[in-house]
Amino acid sequence: MKVGFYQFNPVFGEIKRNLDQVVARLHEVECDLMVLPELFASGYQFASQEEVERLSEPVPDGETTARLIEVARSRGMYVVAGLAERGERGCYNSAVVVGPSGFLGCYRKTHLFFEETLFFLPGDTGFRVWDIGEAKVGVLICFDWFYPESARTLALKGADILCHPSNLVLPHCPDAMVTRCLENRVFSITANRIGSEARGGKDRLTFIGSSEIVAPNGRILHRASRDREEVTVLEIDPAEARKKSLNPYNDLLQGRRPDLYAR
Ligand code: ACM
Description:
By secondary structure, this protein is α/β, with parallel strands linked by helices. It has helices at 15-26, 49-55, 63-75, 116-119, 148-156, 173-184, and strands spanning 2-7, 33-35, 78-86, 91-99, 102-108, 129-131, 136-139, 161-165, 187-191, 196-197, 205-206, 212-214, 220-223, 230-235, 245-247, 250-251. It has one domain (2-260): Nitrilase/N-carbamoyl-D-aminoacid amidohydrolase. Helix content is 22%, strand content 28%. A 6-stranded mixed β-sheet has the order 5-4-3-2-1-14. A 6-stranded mixed β-sheet has the order 6-7-8-9-12-13, covered by helices on one side. Strands 10-11 form a two-stranded antiparallel sheet. Helix 5 (148-156) runs parallel beside helix 6. Acetamide is lined by residues 38, 113, 142-143, 167-169.
């Protein structure tokens, strides 16, 4: 199975321009599963609620999801991509999953980071897993990584691959994903962005790039640069994520002791 990410520098507020760039790039790529960054079409650093509302879209009926479905159909690939979703009660920092047959579903970010808490509602979908034939894919968004429960819940729900749209600014996540993969025996694909934003008189945010694909044994199969645009596609065997036996005495998930864990 060929899986990958597209690390690039979205221009804030320029949804059509960002979409055109991504769609053109995906038309050049051969893969089964592609992960794009968090908020890849809108940009990240919102200055007001009005901006969030203007740059968010209904799912699945908005322009961004429609364009992703179009490219997924014509390229025969699945795409997981972060976007600002306009829901009935307010806006969510979400990710859609689309494929050759159309829209599969949406995940709303559970753990909002920093000023996202001012502009978005906390996600209410819970962690979700989709069967895309060759693998089961689970979705978490950026700061969700900081809560190990996110990856664990997805592993318990059967995910082979964690798809992780991100806009990382702190340096810790790429190394931490090694542990998330090892402790859950899953693959991860973190798609981060590059560049920086300094909007509305706020401090500049510099995104750290370093998108990566990690294997269930904790090996970093590829890590991108901190500051250059890059598409990476690698061949993986998702069956590796289904081997939860560590040795004849230890099975990863069977060995859990939930009765002794705090809730
Ligand atoms: C983040 O959750 N965008 C850091």
